[in-house]
Amino acid sequence: MDSSSDFVSEFKRVLSLIYPPYEFPDVYGRIFYFNWFPNPHHQECFQQHCVDVARRMDALCRRDHLLQEIWKEDITYAYLVGFLHDIGKPFVTRINFFGQQGFRGHAQVGARLVTLRFQDEIPEDVLLTMGVLIDCHLCCLRNLSFSSEHRLRVNAILHMYLPTLPHLLSLLMRLHSADQSSKQPPVQVDGSGYLYQAPFTFRKGRRVVIFLLGPMGSGKSTIARALTEELASCGSVLHLQRDEILMKLAKEGESYSSCYYRIKGDPALKRQLQTLWQECLDSASADILLVDTCQTYFLSNMIGFENCF
Hints:
- It is a single chain.
- By secondary structure, the protein is an alpha/beta fold.
- Strands 5-6-8-7 form a four-stranded mixed beta sheet. A two-stranded antiparallel ribbon has the order 1-2.
- This is HD domain-containing protein.
C-alpha cells in the first residue's frame, strides 16, 4: 500500500472489495457511514483508524513474513486483520443514559462477520487465525501495567481456550501494537506480557483455582457448567459467581446494572465487595474453584479494584 494515499479513498476501495456495495448494500452502508462520537480514545475518525491499523499491522507482520499472502490486488491477510478488527462496531453500537456510545461484543461480532465473508476465499487455518485475532484484540495484555498475578491468569485462560495456531500470540501482540499506536493520541504498548507456554496451574493452598475472565453476558456461566461436569472426576467443584456476590450489596428492588455502577463509583463499597470475595474464597471447601474474577480482560468492563485472590 502507498502510505501517502488518502485514507478515505483507500478505505472506500478496500471496503468495496470486501463488501461490494451491489452485493452487500446493507453491510457496506452500515460500515461506510459509521463513525464514533468524539471520545478520549479516538480523536481520529473510524475510517482513518481502520486504514492506519491495517497499514501498521501489515508492516509489523512483514518483518517476519507473517500473514503476507495476498488476498486480492495488493491486500495481504495481515492488512485485512488490521482493517477489519473493529468491523463489528457499526452493528453493536448502543448509547447509554449519559449519551455515550458502547460497543460491547464488537470483537466477537467482527470475528463472525469475517469468518462468514471469507469462508470460501481464505484457507481454513488462515481464516481461523484471523478470526481469533479479531475476537481477542481487546485482551488486556496490551501492556504491562497489570500485576504479574493478573497477567498469569490471563495467560492461563489464553492457553486454555485459544486454538493451537502458529505464531498466534506473536500476531496478537502485533495487532495490539498496531491498534494502540494508531489511536490519537497514541497509546504506548509493551506486548512482552504473553507467555508462549502455558503457565502453572493456579493454586490456593491445596485447591486449584480456575479464573473465568470476561464481561457480563460473555458466557462465563455456560463455560463453568461445562467445566464442572468435566472436572467432577478430579474432585469437588464450586463456581463462585461475581454477579451473586455483587448483588448482596444491592438495595431493595435495585437492578444489577444500577448496583454495579453504584459500587463502581464508591470506594467504600468496592472495599466491601472485596471483603465479600475474600470471605467466599476462605469459606470455600471444594477441591477446584471456578471463579468469575472482579477484573475482566475487557478494559471497558473493569470495576477498578485490586485482585483479591
